[in-house]
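To the wet lab folks,

You asked to see what we're planning to order before we commit. Fair enough. Below is the target structure as tokens, and below that is the sequence we designed to fit it. If anything looks off to you, flag it before the synthesis order goes out.
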């Protein structure tokens, strides 16, 4: 089967309760999406897998949860106030706003006109005001963070001192970021409110290039470990002209998000970026000694964010390697990658979401074969209750068994457990596998061990 396009996924996502258009009863809000009962489980599984991999399974990374609204000076010294811009043009004919760097042939994609304004920089940070002050009070102006990373840099000394770390070590954070994108779109691929999973890994200068390459390889593997096929992933080396102002080298992990596009180069887009940010951030946020003219380069910071190496007795600014992924793009890639169709012996085509078991929103569905038989219903509900401390399990009796299986296949539930008349006698149930549709009879007392053995690692 050919790869699904995003439209197929949008329709599945809405129909089955993964993702809904936001504010729909008021006509929607461009490119804002709400995660429904299954979407929130899937996104939680992504966050939990990333956190486990980044923080629990290593000995050199700590977690953090910093504020979304930070002191405005953070964004002054990080360079975002000045440079976090997209080149904006207006079409003089149809008034559409466009990103100049995304116009392939200098024509408005809406009306085809070439009558466009000159590009001008448009800052992507959302502004708001803190406190009960006038809207135009410049002292009250703040931004919603456009990346979680800065919250980590400004806490570098706090984490270093409270966790008594030595280089190399990292700080991981998951949280919302906001960018007033000029051209959001493609479902949850590019939105104005999104969620990042970022980790800043601090190393000695000179050890940065090797650490960078190791993180590129590790992240590439992680996406495969959560079930994304290697064929739909590729590494993209950002050319020098594309690098962010802080980066020495950046490698993107791209996913084949747009398989339907004719130009094969445009099939791919960014899922994650892994940047070597050098010592740019720790240096820029540091209270610096005066320069030759007696001028301090950062006149606002009260701290020096350098590191003292006990062994060499040297003080320096660590380099930073930053793996930065999006929760939402990971959810989209997982849905696209897992989508498959299968025809049953009646010739009906069914959607099967072959999600990695660890990502499946529901791990086990317990289904009674007859919902008018209290003993069967009671046994099925008791099995569901016995599963719930271990995994996300549901009980469903809202249709015939064929329909219930099809519904679970479509949302990616790895196993269905069916309680039938025979179960009342032999204390056994039928376990059906989502991918093979094979069924096996299992004793109820063996069920937890049986399922735990059949779940893929990491579930
Ligand atoms: N701190 C580095 C940084 O923010 P980025 O490449 O701009 O780097 C990292 O963002 C990841 O965040 C991207 O790879 C993408 O997955 C996600 N992301 C960025 N902008 C997004 C948007 N407008 N909508 C959804 N996800 C976004």
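Sequence we intend to order:
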């Amino acid at each position: 089967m050919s790869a699904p396009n995003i439209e197929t996924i949008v329709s599945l996502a809405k129909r089955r309760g993964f993702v809904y258009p936001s504010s729909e009863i008021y006509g929607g809000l461009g490119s804002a999406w709400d995660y429904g009962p299954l979407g929130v489980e899937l996104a939680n599984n992504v966050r939990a897998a990333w956190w486990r991999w980044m923080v629990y399974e290593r000995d050199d990374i700590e977690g953090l949860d910093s504020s979304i609204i930070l002191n405005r000076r953070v964004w002054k010294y990080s360079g975002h106030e000045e440079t976090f811009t997209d080149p904006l043009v207006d079409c003089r004919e149809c008034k559409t706003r466009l990103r100049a760097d995304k116009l392939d042939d200098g024509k408005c994609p809406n009306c085809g006109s070439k009558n466009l304004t000159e590009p001008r920089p448009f800052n992507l940070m959302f502004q708001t005001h803190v406190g009960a002050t006038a809207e135009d009070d410049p002292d009250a102006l703040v931004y919603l963070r456009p990346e979680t990373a800065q919250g980590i840099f400004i806490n570098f000394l706090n984490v270093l001192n409270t966790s008594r770390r030595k280089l190399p070590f990292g700080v991981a954070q998951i949280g919302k970021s906001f960018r007033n994108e000029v051209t959001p779109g493609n479902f949850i691929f590019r939105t104005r409110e999104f969620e990042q999973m970022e980790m800043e890994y601090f190393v000695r200068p000179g050890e940065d290039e090797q650490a960078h390459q190791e993180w590129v390889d590790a992240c590439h593997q992680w996406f495969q470990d959560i079930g994304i096929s290697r064929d739909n992933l590729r590494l993209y080396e950002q050319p020098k002209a594309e690098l962010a102002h802080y980066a020495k080298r950046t490698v993107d992990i791209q996913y084949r998000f747009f398989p339907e596009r004719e130009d094969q180069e445009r099939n791919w887009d960014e899922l994650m970026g892994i940047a070597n940010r050098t010592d740019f951030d720790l240096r820029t946020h540091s209270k610096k000694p005066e320069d030759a003219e007696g001028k301090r380069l950062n006149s606002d910071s009260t701290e020096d964010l350098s590191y003292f190496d006990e062994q060499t007795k040297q003080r320096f600014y660590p380099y930073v390697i930053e793996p930065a992924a999006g929760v939402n793009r990971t959810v989209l890639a997982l849905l696209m990658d897992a989508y498959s169709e299968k025809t049953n012996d009646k010739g009906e085509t069914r959607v099967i979401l072959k999600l990695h078991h660890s990502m499946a929103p529901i791990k086990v569905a317990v289904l009674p074969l007859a919902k008018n038989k209290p003993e069967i219903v009671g046994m099925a509900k008791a099995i569901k209750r016995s599963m719930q401390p271990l995994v996300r399990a549901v009980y469903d009796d809202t249709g015939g068994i064929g329909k219930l299986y099809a519904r679970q296949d479509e949302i990616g539930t790895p196993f269905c457990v069916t309680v039938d008349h025979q179960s009342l006698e032999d204390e056994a149930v039928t376990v059906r596998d989502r991918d093979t549709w094979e069924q096996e009879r299992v004793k109820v007392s063996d069920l937890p061990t049986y399922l735990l053995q059949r779940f893929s690692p990491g579930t």
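Structural context that might help your review: Residues 147, 149, 179, 181, 190-191, 194, 196, 198, 270-273, 322, 324-326, 328-329 surround glycyl-adenosine-5'-phosphate (CB under 6 Å). The mean pLDDT is 95.

Thanks,
Computational group
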